[in-house]
Amino acid sequence: MMCCFLVVFFLGMEKVVVCPYKRPNALYRLICFPWAGGGTSQLAQWGKLFSSSVEVCSVRLPGRESRHKEPFAKDMATVVNEITSALLKELQEKPFAFFGHSFGSYISFAVALHLKEKYGLEPFHLFLSGAHAPHSEAFLPIKMVSISDTKDEDVLKYIEILGGTPSELLQSEDIKEHLILTFREDLRVLQTLSFEKAERNIPFSCDITCFNGSEDKSHDVEAWHDLTSGDISYYELPGGHFYLLEPSNEIFLTKHITKCIENAGL
């Protein structure tokens, strides 16, 4: 019976968490959360760029890649509960940090908050990229976008402006259609994120590092300072919203994150 449970557990984890460069003897785990419409292909590959002390995984949401036949999640609570269930045992074993970009930053925040409130677990470092603090006024317009009234061509134009999607992929009608649908559904999930910072309540004690592209729209990263009693730092790297896909920026990010992790003194 226990054997069957373990098989189901690991299959469930492999479905939600992708870790192509497994390092069972690593001292730390870095869990990555991809952007809206994105999958695991880019961030999961970071595993080969880190030292042997860090095991890198990326979460995979329903509706994409090997989960493309599954229905999309309808709200942030569903996403958070699934990721937490898949990762909880792993996160109890050794220190962990989160990295999220854009939509992924908000998911990583929501998962971290749930872990802290329900299980007393906390990442020792949050690395957040291209995102407003969720309690800031700058985040409100995202929640006001009418998804159902937005035309497909307008969604596609926004995706093209953001960058990050190879132009050859957009030549395929099937891929383009699925990308638009995935982006819509991820935005729908993001709009269900509800967080109001209570006065004098600082949810985290971990360090937070915020990254942003120099040519991207400005994000209210200063407000992340309100959410932790730990240290906070900000870095602006050359490029637009998907600055992190530039090889030179990717090298900076992985080296800087490695340094932060290995210097955490845990």
UniProtKB/TrEMBL annotation:
One GO-annotated biological process of the protein: medium-chain fatty acid biosynthetic process
Signal sequence interval, chain numbering: 1-18
The UniProt record lists the keyword Signal: yes
Start and end residues of each Thioesterase domain: 29-250
Gene3D superfamilies noted in UniProt: alpha/beta hydrolase
SUPFAM superfamilies noted in UniProt: alpha/beta-Hydrolases (SSF53474)
Protein family (similarity comment): Belongs to the thioesterase family.
Protein name (record): S-acyl fatty acid synthase thioesterase, medium chain
Species for this entry: Cepphus grylle (Black guillemot)
Upper lineage: Eukaryota, Metazoa, Chordata, Craniata, Vertebrata
